[in-house]
Amino acid sequence: MGKTPxxxxxxxxxxxxxxxxxxIADPKAGGTLTQAQARFPITSNEEMKGFNHLxxxxxxxxxxxxxxxxxxxxxxxxxxxxSFWLDKFKEAFRQPEANAEQLITExxxxxALAQYELSQxxxxxxxxxxIKGDTTALNDSAKRGAILxxxxxxxxxxxxxSCHSGDFFTDEQFxxxxxxxxGHGKGDGASGHEDYGRYRExxxxxxxxAFRTPKLIKRCSYRPMDAFRRIRKPNxxxxxxx
Length: 242
Prior knowledge:
By secondary structure, this protein is mainly alpha-helical. Helix content is 34%, strand content 2%.
């Protein structure tokens, strides 16, 4: 909520998530933005939840999966070997005498996922080497791509840097780039198969179909523009409609 730089959400002011109203901190978000994010892929039908548990809300599906992993409660017996994960949680959380119900909880699972994610620091990449002075780090094709990326449309480039700026290639802002819908959507629109993006949070008409600029450092591509199979097509699309 406080958006304090360098704190990853851990500034004592709380973290707002889709489980809480706009502008209200989620008491179950965890201590960092990383932990808060780790709790949500399993709640999305289009990502990890699928369409077999539609009656379970976000918190219910989290708790159900924790029980399934730990082998207790309603999900007891769904997996064969629960001792493997219990031993791992005992070691990770330094609680050798704890049982599965005490250790394998949705809060501990999200905390563990967040700690793993935070351990993945990707700074060793060809682009970083190039801007530090190693002119051999990029081949000629990559250099031509960089020119296209950084040059404005008036200069014959794609103008990507107008949004993908900074060290991580994102301005952290929300934009509507008129990209085609990919996937089931989020139940928006007359068909129920659209995703209104930022509008779903702010309810501002100007935010319809606006999405946050994704980072481009060491990432797996997942964005509306992925409807295009080859990079030439989104570049051409961006020049026409961007």
